[in-house]
From TrEMBL:
This is DNA-binding transcription factor. Residues 10-68 form the HTH myb-type domain. Coiled coil: none annotated. It comes from Lithospermum erythrorhizon (Purple gromwell). PROSITE patterns: HTH_MYB (PS51294). Transmembrane segments: none annotated.
Amino acid sequence: MASNRGDCTSKDRLKWTQHLHEQFEKAVTQLGGPDRATPKGILKLMGVEDLTIFHVKSHLQKYRMSKYIPESNSRGKVESRSIPELLPNFGSTSAAQLYEALRMQMEVQLRLNDHDEVQKRLKMKMEAQARFIEGKTDELRSKDAMITRRQQAIKTYCPPTSLPPLCEDPEVVIDTRHASKRTRIHHDFSTDQFYEFEQYYQEPQYNDATFESWQW
């Protein structure tokens, strides 16, 4: 068991030399580039002893990353750099470490995005509450102004001191001695105005003594 573990450890710690890397690049080119090449196909084309698919897969991931990391030179052009230039300790750097670093970076970015989304929703909620409170305040002010106008209209209204004659036509017989004239005042609360005087008559209340005084 100990010998097997030692063999696996030695295989996992395989160091990619310049010659081995050139064979790797040649196999990748034959398979159509880093995007189309597969670890199984690269391993078959290289035909190197003690080289496992794990080694090829890890190296392919690093190779793809190096191709998508540009660098600007003094002329402003973008060029791709080789793996030894990007990673000085390329032999000791594992794919698991790179994956863990990328995963942590993605988690931080997701947290920042979630924080920005929460702040945005909170701002929208506060703005909606402010608009609601402003609308209610304007409504209360409008009601207070209407009540004030009604009170002023009631205070400034002066009823007439004299009323027109009950009836100017002598042919119409109305007993003015016993009929009481009443006046109705209509107030339109929707417009805060007083209008139209309606006159009506209230029949007198008779009793036996009244009829006796009318007898001839």
